[in-house]
Amino acid sequence: MDEILKQLQDGTISIEQAKEQLAPYENLGFAKVDHHRPKRQGFPEVIYGEGKTVEQIQAIIHAIKAKNNNILVTRVAKEKAAPILEVHPELHYDETARLIYWKREVAPANVGQGYIAVICAGTSDLEVAEEAAITAEVMGCNVRRIYDVGVAGIHRLLDNLEEIQHATVSIVVAGMEGALPSVVGGLVSHPLIAVPTSVGYGANFQGLSALLTMLNSCASGVSVVNIDNGFGGAYNAVLIDRLANKA
Amino acid sequence: MDEILKQLQDGTISIEQAKEQLAPYENLGFAKVDHHRPKRQGFPEVIYGEGKTVEQIQAIIHAIKAKNNNILVTRVAKEKAAPILEVHPELHYDETARLIYWKREVAPANVGQGYIAVICAGTSDLEVAEEAAITAEVMGCNVRRIYDVGVAGIHRLLDNLEEIQHATVSIVVAGMEGALPSVVGGLVSHPLIAVPTSVGYGANFQGLSALLTMLNSCASGVSVVNIDNGFGGAYNAVLIDRLANKA
Amino acid sequence: MDEILKQLQDGTISIEQAKEQLAPYENLGFAKVDHHRPKRQGFPEVIYGEGKTVEQIQAIIHAIKAKNNNILVTRVAKEKAAPILEVHPELHYDETARLIYWKREVAPANVGQGYIAVICAGTSDLEVAEEAAITAEVMGCNVRRIYDVGVAGIHRLLDNLEEIQHATVSIVVAGMEGALPSVVGGLVSHPLIAVPTSVGYGANFQGLSALLTMLNSCASGVSVVNIDNGFGGAYNAVLIDRLANKA
Amino acid sequence: MDEILKQLQDGTISIEQAKEQLAPYENLGFAKVDHHRPKRQGFPEVIYGEGKTVEQIQAIIHAIKAKNNNILVTRVAKEKAAPILEVHPELHYDETARLIYWKREVAPANVGQGYIAVICAGTSDLEVAEEAAITAEVMGCNVRRIYDVGVAGIHRLLDNLEEIQHATVSIVVAGMEGALPSVVGGLVSHPLIAVPTSVGYGANFQGLSALLTMLNSCASGVSVVNIDNGFGGAYNAVLIDRLANKA
Amino acid sequence: MDEILKQLQDGTISIEQAKEQLAPYENLGFAKVDHHRPKRQGFPEVIYGEGKTVEQIQAIIHAIKAKNNNILVTRVAKEKAAPILEVHPELHYDETARLIYWKREVAPANVGQGYIAVICAGTSDLEVAEEAAITAEVMGCNVRRIYDVGVAGIHRLLDNLEEIQHATVSIVVAGMEGALPSVVGGLVSHPLIAVPTSVGYGANFQGLSALLTMLNSCASGVSVVNIDNGFGGAYNAVLIDRLANKA
Amino acid sequence: MDEILKQLQDGTISIEQAKEQLAPYENLGFAKVDHHRPKRQGFPEVIYGEGKTVEQIQAIIHAIKAKNNNILVTRVAKEKAAPILEVHPELHYDETARLIYWKREVAPANVGQGYIAVICAGTSDLEVAEEAAITAEVMGCNVRRIYDVGVAGIHRLLDNLEEIQHATVSIVVAGMEGALPSVVGGLVSHPLIAVPTSVGYGANFQGLSALLTMLNSCASGVSVVNIDNGFGGAYNAVLIDRLANKA
Amino acid sequence: MDEILKQLQDGTISIEQAKEQLAPYENLGFAKVDHHRPKRQGFPEVIYGEGKTVEQIQAIIHAIKAKNNNILVTRVAKEKAAPILEVHPELHYDETARLIYWKREVAPANVGQGYIAVICAGTSDLEVAEEAAITAEVMGCNVRRIYDVGVAGIHRLLDNLEEIQHATVSIVVAGMEGALPSVVGGLVSHPLIAVPTSVGYGANFQGLSALLTMLNSCASGVSVVNIDNGFGGAYNAVLIDRLANKA
Amino acid sequence: MDEILKQLQDGTISIEQAKEQLAPYENLGFAKVDHHRPKRQGFPEVIYGEGKTVEQIQAIIHAIKAKNNNILVTRVAKEKAAPILEVHPELHYDETARLIYWKREVAPANVGQGYIAVICAGTSDLEVAEEAAITAEVMGCNVRRIYDVGVAGIHRLLDNLEEIQHATVSIVVAGMEGALPSVVGGLVSHPLIAVPTSVGYGANFQGLSALLTMLNSCASGVSVVNIDNGFGGAYNAVLIDRLANKA
To answer: Is 0.95 surpassed by the pTM of this model?
Structure first.
């Protein structure tokens, strides 16, 4: 802000320009697309697909592509993805993760520079785990998937322990009783993002059980995102992974 | 019931006698003490101490002792226990477990006949774990205590695994996220009674978190009793232990 | 574990072999099938059918059958069962209980060796009760069904009391107010597994009412599993029944 | 209202008088005491003592006594009752029920005219049960107390069945799982008012468990009042008892 | 019971006969139909239609009709009612109330003997109000309907006050904030059964809001049944109306 | 009321007429249409469309139009609106806001007389925001729409601050975490009506999260209406706007 | 903001000065006192007393008084108020409302300019009602108190209707079932701020019942603030009252 | 693990030694102190003080000090801290943060190596914020405190924006509506740990409101820990800060 004010003071820019730079979005009427995010936050605005029509999503994609930015649309059902991909055939769609995405340039795999471990408890948690894994990959990180290692069969987890412990950061996805992050959290020394899922029935209450379990974890180093929020888990992990690799 | 009806038909007993045998309790006015329980359920009526006055508890103890039955009073605060023990000095009181008890005859330790494992996650769960352990002992079972083996330090649990696996039945006591029963449940082949405790804070909601975790356990063979109900956990375990030893 | 370590020390097995024996599952990619369960827990891994595709279920069945183990798949809707049975025509499917199952060898009925009483409150609880009853039968136990004996017509229950009291263990299934386990619990001296169902409306809150009732039961010897978890109720009862018959 | 309007039209009363008769209370500043209730509802205004100071209660008692009406003050702690009784020594105070009351004229016991059965599950429910019983007596009804007949010992209830069945209406008070009204409701043919109490712990959630149980009762003829609302249960029962005796 | 025991003692009846009379129901396998209810409770067993198949309902109707008893089936969707009425064309079906019913003999209207007021707050509560009104009529009572008199337009209620006040008992049905019973309760001197409905949205939480309002009513003489339980409200009111008319 | 009573006293009106004026609605049987509202409350009765059939809505519209009053029907799904508009082609329907409306006379835009700011957090909140905006316009107010200015991109909000600050009153619509009213509330000096929406997933619990946030707002001058209640938000704002312009 | 930027551009102010004007508060270390509020929001910062020590409150009072601004401290217990008043003897303290306040200049009573009606349901709601009433008075508005007019005695309310209807805005305070705002809302044509209180017991759940009732009010023109938030209710009403009088 | 197995195979260590190294804790009876944590997790075991007696805490401190490890005890009330400090006078106690701590060696301030921003919304959140800040400092990180910058006065936050944006990671502590993390999250590009506090009243429900707000944050890069868990927030932040500085 200092710099903009200085430019204004110097007469380098006009008041109009100064104001534009303080609120630097494109107004589509139904939405305001934030083009400053890549600069401000390191990644372009991600489109939350659930409450939006096909037309709205296409318009926002169009605006972002015009700036040659990466694209990520979350929570896109198969039926909704089809017409979007017809118009934008260069985009990718992953049915399990329900993600549409496009990367401007695929950087060479940054092998040896650390990776994010995406761990899930059961086969039913795959959808959320893949949302996390692909999001992290689209945002430029290495990912290792360790799936179906729930606590009721602790040997399956212990057998993969070394790979988990060597990660920069772990994303642990679990439904039902959601106990996996507590066990993993006690075995690793890096940050752990816990993602509760709505998998379960009865006293699970659509993921409330797993959410409460994770918030009450007696393992240190565990923080939590919303139920089924694979994207959110990945976003946090990516920020941490970048810090680790940048330094 | 058949037998009583037959006796009535034969004229061996009167209608009045038949009726008395169908509702065989002693009416103290404020309470009806069930003297048939030792015969019907294998253990005398247990006195829930929390809502009762010192006078009420003493009167019920008096009635039970008159029949020479074992005595167990749960949830007795220290202040309430003192005047009771003054009147009944032969009773025992355990401050941690908040139990008053007396056994008619202490049977010789039934070594080698199996035992109940009482397992707890943390030091703060001791009160509930001891309520369970002593209840089981008063009811005539062997007990092994395995304490402070919460899932965030899984090694402490694994180190005691063999002793746990050889038990007839396990009582697993845990607060906070309550994940311990799921892990133990996956490692043993005997029934497991899970007891959530109200230990924790915030999103623990007085034990709700641990309760939901245990109800949603993905490990098979886990059933649950009320929050902080160490007595209830023990009662179930004792019934199972008796079946195993009786047969 | 001692034995494996000893073999390793003796050079009888390699490190690789030792590690394999500590995590003895088959990795199907989307799932890790635990082939050690029959040895460790007395029954092969049960497949929770709800979150899985037909293809995934078939693949897991295939892996288990290759080991000649018993098979039990729970929560399989009729539409999903049909294509599975086409591929595996030797499997059985029960529409009410929504179970697919297969037993390697049907042992001769172990008449006279005790039985599990499966008791339900109303006609609407049949689905859960049958899930429990068939699970227990597939796992090798005798079962007696006592249905539609809810507490609002207590005579129906009392009329079947003798059969219930002679069981080794009872599974009591009830929705709405869920009061049945408390009444039965006061009349029997064996362990009782209570299964709340989501049957009801309004302040029932999808089974929460029955669940809370059962957790707060003033009858001793009652433990609880998740709402609608007929399988879980049976699993617990089977473990207890085995202990009683084994001893 | 018709009559008042007619009198106004006829000139028998003034507008001022007509208005006074439409809102016929005494304004004490902090409270408006309704002196028309005996006429309109058959009993004077009952004072809810909990949120009020000693001075406020005394002032309201004074206003009611000036009209020579019966007096009933609910939820008065012992410490609060003492100074009130000093000023109004003719009042009665019951410590268990926490009621202050006075009856203008004690009618001769209306023996043979029906009675209200006040039934409670356990000794800990006595406080609420007595609030109900004494309220009903102060309001002029016969009461029979049947206490400590919870469902976990069904014989104690069945033994008192006849007395319960002959009542005009039953008030059933229960905490913990609150199953008693369902069982009683299935055995009687008169209306039943269920009063949940906050007695219990853990997943009882201060009476929520018993409340939900009663609302979901599968027995017909059961209606429910607020948790611990012994007074409310009695008020409903008295209205019904009067209808039965009046006709 | 006394009488049966006496007959047994006298040898008038056999043990087998005595037992049958203590549990006098017809066992259809999936259900036990209680034929003693008309004698014991004054009305035959009512069939809760929601969890039952067409075949099950038809079988139960068949069993009840064989005893020439009245019939009432609640919560029957239109699609389910059609095949039932084809088989039993003499039955009536009301689409709004979702009731199937049949009365053995239609008694002459008992004009002048009192009536039940069925009051509802809004047009959206009609379904529940009609379930209550028709149930009461089928059970032999007079009913007066006062609809769409919610508290936000208090004049509509006051205009119908006289008719409400002259009723023997009121059933008050309301969704949303559910305030109507409190206002009516303050204006009448007879018992009032409050029926919350699930009508509303947002913080209504499927009727929870109306339910809590009614349980907390500061008006005396209000008791509550489950959300949407028009049948239950009517059953209570009918029991009260009978007491008032019988005496 | 004084005036009506005076007229009655003077004999100017009959008792019948006096009564009619105290409850001045039209009884359609299933509904009582309040024709006094324009006089009493400044706007005709608004029809809540959700629980009503097409026929019921048409009948109420017919009754209101007969009095030449404005019309507003809320929560009308597209399928339901079509047949209504066929019969009443002069009505307008807005698909996003799900409103049917008609204004007797469109007053000239009251430019310069203040306006209501309708602010929403995200594109998914549009439906509720438009319900609020159009309601306010139909009721005769100026409206400015400021959409998609959620707090996670605070610059978008600050850029529109001046227009918001100059409004007479603000309606702030937000789902998910619902933080927008707190931020806006700290920046304006006029009243703010907060409308939580059910937009979100997981721990949002159908709008509960946004509702609680708004009720706990640390900004002064924020009051709240029900979840998704755009109409209610507008109604409050219109009342305030009228007060500001009237004075 | 435009103006500040212009001054900066013109060189009238320095960057440092521009920044100070964008964040114009006094930093006390533990708190940042906002001295711009009188200008920005029309009233100085109000001090929420609950979480603060006596020393912190005194320091903030000192800072505000230095600017000669009005003072209002909410939620100050009697014990906490005493030492504060010793240091600042010119402040007033109201024990019922738990408010400390001081007005720089007491404006002449603005008689005839409209007033705020503060209405409460019962004597137990007085504390919250007085917090609202005094807050409004300190902020310069006329207030009329109408207390103890709960809906269970509707005549008391109707008798005060005229005074309520003539108010500019109403604050309606109610606990228990919280039905009063719905009834008042249907009788007035001005905005109504509903304040639920935590008065009640059992299923009241510390004010949740009243809160939900008010949010679901079927009366239009009702908005809601937090439980027991008399201050918040008043603040909203004052903003509205000012708009009405300003215009 | 590989290494230990290799040593075992080589005969370098015995089976007993191998086992000890797999569960390397000190058994105090009531607790098992984990001495391997500094090696495994980078920081010694932290003692949760709340459920423990003074004697238990002293014993654990003694065991940790014997290994010359750093010490951190959380949630120690003033009364409990005094006797502990008497025995261990070299320990520090912070009353606001309720922490006891000791650092083996105070490393020179690692100036210029990045810092953690601890941000809190209001003065009442200080306790939790200080628990976070001091924990992070004891664990070796630089901390900057930015307090009392809640969203209702957004200028206070924006004025400190630069310092916040330059942090490695932010801990944002807020009670009431808990909106601060969403606003900060939209302004920074580093990870943000949100800590809800139980500060508030009414519909805050002991911190539930703030917790839900944070879980539903529409800002990316926000993860959440338990209510009032300042320690947990710090622990996560420290892990991230180390990764950033290590690399």
So the answer is: no
